[in-house]
Amino acid sequence: MLEPNSQFPNPLNNCPEKTGSSKDKLTVKIFNLFFEIEFFIKVAVACTIVQQLIYWLSNKFHLNFTAEVLLYWLVGSVSFYSIGVFIEKIIKTNETWRQRFNVRIKKVKEQPFPAFTAKGILVGEIKSLAAAAIILSLDPEVH
Question: What is the DSSP string of the chain?
Answer without folding.
Answer: ---TTPPPPPGGGG-GGGS--HHHHHHHHHHHHHHHHHHHHHHHHHHHHHHHHHHHHHTT----HHHHHHHHHHHHHHHHHHHHHIIIIIITT-HHHHHHH---SSPPPP-------HHHHHHHHHHHHHHHHHHHHHS----
